[in-house]
Specification:
By secondary structure, this protein is of the alpha+beta class. It folds into 5 domains: about 70 residues, no CATH class; about 170 residues, P-loop containing nucleotide triphosphate hydrolases (Rossmann fold), CATH 3.40.50; about 100 residues, Translation factors (Elongation Factor Tu (Ef-tu), domain 3); about 110 residues, Rossmann fold, CATH 3.40.50; about 100 residues, Translation factors (Elongation Factor Tu (Ef-tu), domain 3), CATH 2.40.30.10. Helix content is about 25%, strand content about 35%. It is built from 15 helices and 33 strands. Helix 4 packs antiparallel against helix 10. The model has no long low-confidence stretch (mean pLDDT about 85). The structure holds guanosine-5'-diphosphate. The site of guanosine-5'-diphosphate has 16 residues, from helix 5. This is Translation initiation factor IF-2. It comes from Nakamurella panacisegetis.
Amino acid sequence: MQAPSIGGITLPRGNGAVIRMARGSSLSDFADKIDANPASMVQALFHLGEMVTATQSVSDDILELLGSEMGYEVQIVSPEDEDRELLDTFDLSYGENEGGEEDLQVRPPVVTVMGHVDHGKTKLLDAIRSTNVVAKEAGGITQHIGAYQVATHLNDVERLITFIDTPGHEAFTAMRARGSKSTDIVVLVVAADDGVMPQTVEAINHAKAADVPIVVAINKIDKEGANPDKIRQQLTEYGLVAEEYGGDTMFVEISARQRTNIDGLLEAVLLTADAALDLRANPNMQAEGVAIEAHLDRGRGAVATVLVQRGTLRVGDSIVAGNAYGRVRAMLGDHGENVAEATPSRPVQVLGFTSVPGAGDSFMVVEEDRVARQIAERRQARTRKAQVANRRRITLEDFNTALQQNKVEQLTLIIKGDNSGTVEALEDSLMKLDVGEEVNLRVVHRGVGGITQDDINLAVITDAIVIGFNVKPVRGVQELADREGVDIRYYTVIYQAIDEIEAALKGLLKPEFEEVAVGTAEIREVFRSSKFGNIAGCIVRSGEIRRNAKARLLRAGVVINDNLTIDSLKRFKDDAVEVREGFECGIGLGSWNNIEVEDTIETYEIREKPRA
Ligand code: GDP
């Protein structure tokens, strides 16, 4: 059989062999695995219509496409699989030493409160925590750490229950998205005067998808018009049948505001846990669990609330959670008290992480700091790689193409300009564009001043295109935008901006000219000369500065003049044709004298942009 040839390039033949590759691998990584020449793979891919370099991370699709052309079956290893393999290399895995029957001890249930907005979730969480404080800790000042434990009595035995105190569905789904299960039971709050609402149904669906039993709290029974039976009736349609109707779901009537029957609800939670779940864990192992909340605190550094799920977490433990690691310096409970040991289902705030873990990240304690650091570092490297590989965001050209293929209906913009008048004028004119029913335009943010990191981050989240009207990115931000694949379009004339956006919205983007940055220089000193006008003493920050190049002057990211020329260029006393990055030079901008220290001179060329 002949070796496969793509566009005349001969490559190894796979014969259906399976190649496992991490998400975000490059052609070079692929070539390594099959002992091929990376350059031929770049060429082969070029013939398949994709232009990438050998070391660039490529998408799953490209890896699979190229693989199949060569007769390999490419399997992309998911981050979870990779993580399992990573832990394997350290001889670790979650739930490893869970132990046998004899090691398991009963642990408190972990509860999330869900339900429609305004049905009383927050009020209920407040009511529970203030009526049932764990006795030994009473008196401390309540700290919101993202979860708390309360004590209650069932058959004269004191039992604990843990509540996640960020009500709503986001925390619940964020954790599930990260593959960790933190909730044992969902308390579904339904207002007796309102009934089943869209988010009630959503909550039921989330809980069912996660296979988590539900206890229904019919709230606001103190209100006139409260009709608990109607709620019972309504919920049967969603498969929640009350015990009194022959089903197995517990319904409890409460008033969060008047704190009526809170104990009844807690009892129902425990009864449901005992009937439906086997909540036991081995406390005698290195702790594992999940981070439920984390932030950076000015004084204390990274602060993370973790929920211990197995084992016992102790001060001094080496810990790794997602991409973050550290050593537990101190633990605080939900009354701000110091905690030396946290057993299963106990939420504690952990100090000592070197960076902030993500909510929903699993954590585990490992033997040594070194291992924690290595695991975290490898995960970080992997995250970076995956980000780069999947960073294809929308550009105006993509939008144009996608529109022609009927794939999009909304163009999202962020508008930054040099003054509020122009920003408003631009937004107004854009919003007035008449482009038919199919597409619409949404401006998610507008503002005055240079394009900042926040603008780019927002663009990433909302898949927006950034419009810079007479403004430029502040230092470092263009690099961020390039890294994240955010399209920034610069305009200095309003109608040009409008024309282009209109053309894109109509799917008619014309061939265009693009500006290519040549170099930037920072003004360090201003020399005033009566004969030559002001001369800027500069250092070239990037690229090179050439005499006669087109230039613009920026002050704190705002374009002061867009239509300048490098009129004179000197190295010391001598005229120069070009000066490169890192060197000092003197620049004269012809008759333009309005220059100040710290201004940036940017030079550029206009080239016709090749169409994708
Ligand atoms: P969430 O959006 O589900 O967190 O709802 P909140 O806890 O913020 O409550 C929404 C509103 O309902 C607030 O004005 C509460 O004071 C009120 N509320 C909550 N529980 C009760 C209750 O049991 N009875 C009455 N009458 N009002 C309540």
